[in-house]
């Protein structure tokens, strides 16, 4: 089922050992390691990332360790837990028929979006596929705006015009949310092109990342983009979120070659443990630095997993067995990993984590309630707005002179 | 009324232009006009850049971008690899971030490689994002038939692109159209498809003082009455405007019906009012295009007339003159038979005007 080459990284875990976790950068401060004691450490802890990365055509590599503060790691945990609760809510709401159409859930992959977001500046550009709820959340969205959009309400992220696959937030440099498999990659190259065009000489460039799945990775337009990125040394990151299945087709059934981080041919690549948010952050720091300096593009392969099927219409069990899903959940869950890391680093204890989870569950529930309290967009003016833009700015609607309606008598003339 | 200062090849009779002073009017080819339009807009706004195959060092496969690479350099005039899907998507992403790309398709036939990006990433973006992300981009290139380029290199894409909400689609005929519409397209904040015509590139037209000015823009969505007439309206665009005018002159010379020629200039949005008002005046209408008949522009003209009160003024049903319903053949006689000719227009006019309503 899983390609054996990928399996080695897939199954390997990068767990901060007690020894590594105990490295304190703040000399003299000793914290009792006994469980149950309230931890009040605000130290920076160094975490071991050995085995998290494989590189291709690179003389340098991401570091074997990462330093992180309690605040930071708690922040990542909270974002990831919010993502998880949000996606589970989507599952419930979809089954309750409050959400229609497509719904592609990201639970299991939270560490990828969180880690990329942690490594990036807000001015770096990001585009992804239809599995975009959590990226939308990370980049300026809220649970209410995401769920609101899924409910088809006017206070949703795109005023009920887009739906699950079409979240956008230009002010946060988030460009979607794209429905056509692979099409986001050339568009992502365009984001990198603009960063290159607008670059200040002497300063590193802002980068752009296009995330896509293993299922998309064989698309020709991706190579077309990689060729141009390499030719013109554009600050572009090709990020394959390898969750091992393109819809219902496993990688050994859809890819004759599945070392996706090597697919750029001469273009360097890094494969990372996408279930470890610390590894993703450090890996992406390295990639952003390389690419932003004008060294040309890089391929990044995130080894990850989705618990749900491809979409809500896919139970996800006709092409993979439940043991695999359960094993991943019990040994590689990105949230469990962060919780364990927090505890072992002395940043939080089990009780604090439990309280945080409880608080977030409550917040998510409130946000969902808020989303439900909004109403659907009215035909007038929402059906007719934003076909054209007047001045290219946000919400600068230009009505076309004539919008024909199913019944001609209801057509609009502007 | 026309002074002897007017000379060249196909002279469109335009009352408005004729009334102007002709002192500073010069002849400009369509090619030169497009080049000037792009050049002026690149000069005006440094966010404008042009990309495509051979646009830079080769000076353009059809020499439309001649001189631009020397003037603006490789940052803003970019030779791309032969990868339409990739570079079109790339240009669209750049437009999302407020750059203003002009994408050249060497011919519109190659746009089919990129049509998903044009329709799904460009046209629909502003709507799907509820006004968050606009796409100020121009797609341009020669459209339709050439001379002996055969089936895969002769297709007209007016019908396909003009059916898509979110796109604007324009098709210039004269040099004034070519320059003014190009400038309007570049300044427009929406994705604009510019359907040029290879066989018009070398044709010269007089350009007035006004048309030569750097602020001259032809508004998108407005048709132009190239020739006024009273008996039959011909609605057409691009190279076929010339054919319609030729047929009109021939008919006038032989004392035949008086033909009004509407140069659509824009296919989307269509200038419904100009079409409807003209048909109300003449009572008879022909749509003329080189594209295939099924679901062509003529179908749209027919439908819009039936849906409007112009229907009540019609003395005859609309007739379409279109390309033949076959892939474009190579041999000269076959190719000519596949395309509208002057006699096709003349015969159709006669056919329309020979119908009499029984009183």
Can you give a write-up of this model?
- Chain A is an alpha/beta fold and about 425 residues long.
- Chain A has helices at about 5-10, 20, 70-95, 110-120, 135-140, 145-150, 185-195, 220-230, 250-255, 275-290, 320-330, 335-345, 350-375, 380; strands spanning about 45-50, 55, 65-70, 125, 210-215, 235-240, 245, 250, 270-275, 300-305, 390, 395-400, 400-405, 410-414.
- Chain A has a single domain (about 50-375), classed as Rossmann fold (3-Layer(aba) Sandwich), CATH 3.40.50.
- In chain A, strand 11 and strand 12 (about 395-400) form a beta hairpin.
- With about 350 residues, chain B is an alpha/beta fold.
- Chain B has 2 domains: about 25-210, Thiamin diphosphate (ThDP)-binding fold, Pyr/PP domains (Rossmann fold); about 225-355, Rossmann fold.
- Helices cover about 35% and strands about 15% of the residues of chain B.
- Chain B is built from 14 helices and 14 strands.
- Chain B has helices at about 15-20, 30-45, 70, 85-95, 115-125, 125-130, 160, 175-185, 210, 240-255, 270-280, 295-305, 330-340, 340-355; strands spanning about 25-30, 50, 75-80, 100-105, 140, 170, 190-195, 205, 225, 230-235, 260-265, 265-270, 285-290, 320.
- In chain B, helix 2 runs parallel beside helix 8 (about 175-185) and helix 4 runs parallel beside helix 5.
- Chains A and B meet through helix 7, helix 8, strand 11, strand 12 and strand 13 of A and helix 4, helix 5 and helix 6 of B.
Quick recap:
Chain B: It comes from Skeletonema marinoi. Chain B: It is found in: Mitochondrion. The complex is a heterodimer of chains A (414) and B (359). Chain A has 414 residues and is of the alpha/beta class.
Write the layout of secondary structure elements.
The complex is a heterodimer of chains A (414) and B (359).
Chain A: H1 4-11, H2 18-21, E1 44-48, E2 53-56, E3 65-69, H3 70-95, H4 110-119, E4 125-127, H5 133-138, H6 143-150, H7 184-197, E5 208-213, H8 220-231, E6 236-242, E7 245-246, E8 249-250, H9 251-254, E9 269-273, H10 277-292, E10 298-303, H11 322-332, H12 334-344, H13 350-373, H14 379-382, E11 388-389, E12 397-398, E13 402-403, E14 412-413
Parallel strand pairs in A: 4-5, 5-6, 6-10, 9-10
Antiparallel strand pairs in A: 1-3, 2-9, 7-8, 11-12, 13-14
Helix pairs in contact in A: 3-4, 3-12, 3-13, 4-10, 6-13, 7-8
Chain B: H1 15-19, E1 26-29, H2 30-44, E2 48-52, H3 68-72, E3 77-79, H4 84-96, E4 100-104, H5 115-123, H6 125-128, E5 138-142, H7 158-162, E6 168-170, H8 175-187, E7 192-196, E8 204-207, H9 209-212, E9 224-227, E10 232-236, H10 239-253, E11 259-263, E12 266-268, H11 272-282, E13 285-288, H12 297-306, E14 319-321, H13 332-338, H14 342-353
Parallel strand pairs in B: 2-3, 2-4, 4-5, 5-7, 6-7, 10-11, 10-13, 13-14
Antiparallel strand pairs in B: 1-8, 6-12, 9-11
Helix pairs in contact in B: 2-8, 4-5, 10-14
Enzyme class (chain B): oxidoreductase
Catalytic activity (chain B): N(6)-[(R)-lipoyl]-L-lysyl-[protein] + pyruvate + H(+) = N(6)-[(R)-S(8)-acetyldihydrolipoyl]-L-lysyl-[protein] + CO2
Subcellular location (chain B): Mitochondrion
